[in-house]
Amino acid sequence: MELLEQTWVRSLFEAFCAWEELRKEAGNMTARIDRYAVFFAEIDRHCMAPGEVTQSHLFNIFGAERLRRGFLIVSFLCERLEIEWDAGALEDMIETKRIRLQAQSWQDRPWALDLQRFVEELQHRKGPSLKRKTIRMYQTAAGGLLETSGVNSPGELTQAGLQRYLKRHPGQAANLSAFVRYLREGSGVLLDLRYKPQASLLKKDRKLVEHVQAMVKQLEAETNELRAKALLVGLLAALYRVPAKEILTLTENDVLEDSEGFLLWPKNYELRVEGRLAKLLKRWVPSSTEGVNGFLFKGRNKVQPLTQDAVRHHLSISSKEVTD
């Protein structure tokens, strides 16, 4: 108690110790009370009135991990001080801190200000706002490309450098889409993220080519709708190296059809589907989708998409494997 100088904090601590949700069994109670007292001492040091004990202020004082470990005290404070605790807001605060720390780790790079302007553009863009986690992932991908390319500014990036980066980090293609579009629209830097499977796969991965060819052949002979959709998900994941869970969330709004076939995620991935695969997609995923969400790969209930477990199940029946 001598750690607490303010009367209202001492009263809070006493009320917490008497709180019915706090287990009072013997054993480590003394040590626990000491740890709890240190937590309240931090509040005493940083808050001058109960109204200052808010979710954002607690995050600034303790950080995410200490708040997680102090969940009992947080629960008590929410109940006693009527704090509205928003898990989504907490996640945003965590990601905002990560964005800031990541920017600081690159602050001495010649392209640091260019990257910061890109992040600010994402934060203030028109239309639906991006989640902070999404912004952090885009920042990571853009910074990684700039770092490994060894350039002084984004204007020096080349297609060859992009391809080298994607060869080493194929999973970053989706996260780089916003940066590539930003460079194209703002600086006239033309980079192409679209994956061209035929030529490159034949050279790089004969095994994958044979796998894809076998899946296409089986799809053309398939009669079961759910199994066909599962095969399509697996085929798209293998060809374009996009996680199956993202393909399962495709909706009508994510697809453009033209004379050559389909364009998936025209505003992000810009994946081109042509030839036999386009015909299969049109056969098993008709353009008029049922269900309120308009998912292309709908499950049995026609409202939600197929689950990853369902995809794995149907692929296992077909002795195929999908990329997660």
Strand percentage: under 5%
Mean pLDDT over the residues: 82
Radius of gyration: 26 Å
* Percent range of helical residues: 55-70%
Provide a short characterization of the protein structure:
By secondary structure, the protein is mainly alpha-helical.
Describe this structure in words.
This protein is mainly α. It has three domains: 7-85; 98-187; 198-317, no CATH class. 60% of the residues lie in helices and 4% in strands. The protein has helices at 7-17, 29-46, 55-69, 71-81, 87-105, 112-123, 132-149, 159-168, 173-187, 197-204, 206-221, 225-240, 244-247, 275-284, 308-317, and strands at 255-258, 261-264, 271-274. It has a three-stranded antiparallel sheet. A hairpin with a 6-residue loop joins β2 (261-264) and β3 (271-274). α7 (132-149) crosses α9 (173-187). It starts with 6 loop residues before the first helix and ends in a 7-residue tail after the last helix. 26% of the residues are buried. Residues 197-202, 288-292 and 320-324 have low confidence and may be disordered.
